[in-house]
Amino acid sequence: MADARRRIVEWTLIGGNRHVVASLLLAVAFLTLLSLGHLGVVTLEDQATVRSVVGGFVPGLIAFLSIVLGINQLVLSQELASPGEIRRRIEDVREYRHDVEEAAGAEPSPVLPTGFLAFVVRAIESEAETLAENARPETDSEVRDAVEEYAANVLDESRRAQESLEQAHLGRINALLPVLEYDDSYQLIEARRLREEYEDELSEESLDALSHMIQTLELFSVARSQFRSTYTQRVLAHLSRRLLYVGLPALLVVVVLGLLRTPSAVGTGWVRLVVVSALFTVAFSPLAVLSAYLFRVASVAERTISEGPFVSRPQEAREGWNRESRARHADRTGSSDGE
């Protein structure tokens, strides 16, 4: 039951088609109005009541149209730049892609988001395999076990992400979905901890492998953050256009509701209840579209808000991992002091 609920929430917030989510929100609004009107909880027959509600809709819908202008200005502000700034951006991208290709040991890197992220994840997987191989000759069993456990965790997570990316369709959001929960920040923290804690015990090859792992994980963090930013720009541009599509008809419907002589003009009984509920539902449509898109934008931003080794959403499993790491460090420090 919990898994089914979680899948429904995930589909509503992130995975589902935004048009379908908005339509479901409108269906819920329509059925709610219909049910409340049928039970007599609300009245849709009093013209004074209808006009007072409509009077609140008009400024709200005009505000929505202002939001459209604000969104377009936000998107355009990210694109407007001088030729020098554009050249610097291109050079930064070229340099970054060169670093990724160097870390992966292959070129050229893919252009599409899904392919590029899969390219970086394969590089992480390769670094984890190299780290595990270099750890096997270590003479200290505690050091060897700690490094091999870390490499195994990275391999498991990178392979899951790789499989999900291979099954994903083209598109920025489909590239982001499989790697939203990828714990690159914790992998960075643990790699740095291993390098610092076992610096004297690890071989030069293992230390180099940990350094390469850290660099590759940082490249992955940059890629995911960049695709999140470009996706957000793209979805905000789509949102502004769709708000215009539904905002103008909604405003027209609100005007019609306000100008009705009486609700009975559209019919009597169930016909009147259905028609007036449907008209109010159309008036709700800009809010439904805005909510459907912001669900996804906010969820994607919240789940990818960590930057490099900094995190904002601690998880119980990772907290336990950190506690174990601190405990091992305390044991080793105590042993050294005793000696």
From TrEMBL:
The chain crosses the membrane at residues 20-41, 53-71, 243-261, 273-295. It holds the Pfam family DUF7972. It comes from the Archaea. InterPro entries: DUF7972. Residues 314-339 are annotated as: Disordered. Residues 315-339 have a biased composition (Basic and acidic residues). Keywords: Membrane, Transmembrane, Transmembrane helix. This is DUF4239 domain-containing protein. The lineage of its organism: Archaea, Methanobacteriati, Methanobacteriota, Stenosarchaea group, Halobacteria.
